[in-house]
């Protein structure tokens, strides 16, 4: 039996997934030339992971966004070796990538109490520096959050991802009959009768060209990097963003989504994936679903229907394909059970060695 808990719902109403900060290590202390004393080293600036911290809390608590470590103590007669300056710690949530001003990754925070040195303190005055202290390192850093969830919903705008999330988790995302209702990630959790919990993330809708940062672009794609499984959600009737854009069938939608993932980061195709075909309550949905199943069983036989530029090198192999209706509830229980089954079957897929092996297989196949 599967049941859901609304108590486990988190909504990112004012979600912040990137912060730009200034960090400066402390200056070293003065040396003592007459007695050969050495000044203390300046304090360092660290980014430290805390599971209960969010980037919004960090921004609100430190609106100046400046973090400076303490200076090292000067050498003196009573203490020839000056003490080290006080370190400065920047509390950050788990799942953060720390980058420099040029976008180079300094390090990542993957679990509680992980630490990354972002600005080193200056050396204290000593013989080699003519007993003069050195200034601490200063730099601009970016804290970039990638949402962590068991399952990430992948789909075009208005495919019904938010409605589906509300059905499987009792979360309450914004839902409306127009594209781009979801502008910030929403996270809900399914709780099973044996107290097993599975987190499901609804991410901003993808559009063609997302790998080039069109639409929500990288703000969407970066979040699925940390999800264990992908759940594709497509409208059985297809998708058309506007009257100025081409209409895409459900099959073309799946092919396009696969292509966007491939162009952004090929490794995403190594993640186990499920497919939820939504809006099965619409007229003619049964016949369209049968056509879609025929196409997915032999996708290469139907790729000629797609433009060459939208055809991926490899199509997705879905673990389960479930017809659902977020409106009537059709297929929802089956979907929950398939999510649980797929996660259990691929429990080792979070292992780095496993992902590297899968990527190698993908590249050589």
From TrEMBL:
GO terms for biological process: ribosome biogenesis. It is found in: Nucleus, Nucleolus. GO terms for cellular component: mitochondrion; nucleolus. Residues 149-344 form the OBG-type G domain. One of its GO terms (molecular function) is magnesium ion binding. It comes from Oryctolagus cuniculus (Rabbit). This is GTP-binding protein 10. Residues 13-148 form the Obg domain. InterPro entries: G_OBG, GTP-bd, GTP-bd_Obg/CgtA, GTP1_OBG_dom, GTP1_OBG_dom_sf, OBG_GTPase, P-loop_NTPase.
